[in-house]
From TrEMBL:
It comes from the Bacteria. InterPro entries: Cyt/Met_Dipeptidase, Peptidase_M20, Peptidase_M20_dimer. Pfam families: M20_dimer (PF07687), Peptidase_M20 (PF01546). This is Dipeptidase. Residues 198-346 form the Peptidase M20 dimerisation domain. The keyword Nucleotide-binding does not apply. PANTHER family: BETA-ALA-HIS DIPEPTIDASE, SUCCINYL-DIAMINOPIMELATE DESUCCINYLASE. Keywords: Hydrolase, Metal-binding, Protease.
Length: 454
């Protein structure tokens, strides 16, 4: 290697020097409403990919925008110095829709600071992930001690439909010894985490039909089942009385190693007084290790406009989270069979698939993971990272593991428990973000020292 090794204190100074520019570029990214969902303006996803490409070009990477029938992803590469390992950095540039605008305290696509947090859709999930990678690259400048390939996906929040094809088409460019996925959450403010598992997900629609047209609710009501009551009855079969998912055929991954204090969990979730938690077992078992099922939306007449008529058809969107180790195809078949078998009153029930992603389990042993632990400990002033599971999903990970079974995977946090990703008033804790950027920089330095041996 020709470049002299940079010391830890030089890296700290370099990250501190880069932070204001990183923050400004994060704000620029937040202003681009790149939503991959159907029905949204996909030219914004293009703009977002362009903006990411520009940032990466500025880090002396060889950059291209790629797609395979879906939304644009950005790949940037820089070859490894002789003998040094190559690190793949992952993040996504697409964001979730903003939902009810009136619930936001500031414009969702403006970055606004309040009380040490930066508010805006994607400020945390996952534009902070992109900028953590950029921060590390900028901190090293020309002295980057590892090879880098960065992959910034453009449709993670919409189920990564073209991801498998993209990975296959760019397989050679994406090969790496270590992969850093900056799209998870830390344990608490001041306490870092390394993610050991994520749940899978299957989203689908269930439609119930009982009539071929709407009819007068007084003239026919009584003997005739309306579709909305029928749908409600069907949905109620999905949990048992204790709130456990009651669908046969979904697996359970056994107990988690860490527990989440119940009071803290209730507060972070914003659960109202008196509302009970669903299911049995430790909170972390229910959150990380067991399946979960939620109704995300229903198409039915709006109450303000509903006439006195029996509703002929109603449709719900359902999301099932799968335990680590479960299989998305089998799980979908199990839920579909459950819904068809439980059709109330002979109603017509049809289930249609939306999208899915496999769960994953990540092995946190070996010298490269130890190198990551030590980088985190240093960035958080001696606080050891907690090994956590995550209830959310990143479909990329299982796909990537299948393709590159040898690669060491590090799933790192940019969010904290107060980030409100996917909800109104999403935000990034700026103090923690500074640590995240430092941790990733130190991580690359330590991975370079550890070399390519796993
Ligand atoms: N960043 C999240 C995954 C995540 C959630 C990590 C919670 C840590 C804690 C990711 O962007 C995400 O939300 N993924 C989607 C995937 C789905 C659309 C296939 C999800 O989990 O809903
Ligand atoms: Mn994300």
């Amino acid at each position: 290697m020709t470049s002299p090794t940079i010391t830890e204190s030089e890296l700290r100074a370099a990250v501190a020097r880069e932070l204001p520019g990183v923050r400004a570029d994060l704000e620029r990214l937040v202003r681009i409403p790149g939503i991959a969902f159907e029905g949204f303006d996909h030219t914004q996803v293009e703009r977002s990919a362009e903006a990411v490409a520009e940032l990466l070009r500025g880090c002396s990477l060889d950059v291209r925008i790629v797609r395979s029938g879906g939304q644009p992803a950005v790949i940037g590469t820089r070859p490894a110095p002789p003998g040094a390992p190559t690190v793949l950095l992952y993040a996504h540039h697409d964001v979730q829709p903003v939902g009810d605008r009136s619930l936001w305290e500031s414009e969702p696509f403006e970055a606004v600071e309040r009380d040490g947090r930066l508010y805006g859709r994607g400020a945390a999930d996952d534009k902070a992930g992109i900028m953590a990678h950029v921060a590390a690259l900028r901190a090293f400048g020309d002295a980057l001690p590892v090879g880098v390939v960065i992959f910034v996906e453009g449709e993670e929040e919409y189920g990564s439909d073209s991801l498998e094809r993209l990975l296959a088409e760019h397989r050679d460019a994406l090969a790496a010894d270590v992969i850093v996925i900056a799209d998870s959450v830390n344990w608490d403010i001041g306490v870092p985490a390394l993610t050991t598992s994520l749940r899978g997900v299957v989203n689908f629609f269930v439609e119930v039909r009982t009539l071929d047209h709407a009819i007068h609710s007084g003239m026919f009501g009584g003997p005739v089942p309306d579709a909305l009551t029928t749908l409600a009855r069907l949905l109620s079969t999905l949990h048992d009385d204790a709130g456990n998912v009651a669908v046969d055929g979904l697996t359970d991954a056994g107990p988690a190693a860490v527990e989440y204090p119940q009071d803290r969990f209730r507060a972070e979730a914003g659960l109202l007084d008196g509302v009970s938690l669903l299911g049995t077992g430790q909170i972390t078992d229910r959150l990380w290790r067991k399946p979960a099922l939620a109704v995300l939306g229903i198409d039915a007449p709006a109450t303000a406009e509903a006439p006195n008529a029996l509703v002929p058809a109603a449709k719900a969107k359902i999301s099932v989270r799968l335990a680590p180790g479960d299989d998305r195809k089998r799980a979908y078949a199990a839920v579909q069979a459950h819904l068809e078998r439980h059709a109330p009153w002979g109603a017509q029930v049809s289930v249609t698939f939306e999208h899915d992603g496999d769960p994953c389990v990540i092995d946190l042993s070996g010298p490269l993971v130890d190198a990551a632990r030590s980088a985190f400990r240093t960035a958080w002033d001696g606080t050891e990272p907690v090994e956590i599971g995550v209830g959310g999903s990143i479909p990329f990970i299982a796909t990537f593991q299948e393709m590159f079974p040898q690669a060491v995977i590090l799933v790192t946090g940019v969010e904290d428990p107060h980030a409100r990703a996917h909800g109104p008033n999403e935000s990034l804790h700026l103090g923690e973000f500074a640590r995240v950027c430092l941790a990733e920089t130190l991580l690359l330095a330590r991975v370079a020292e550890a070399g390519t041996g796993h």
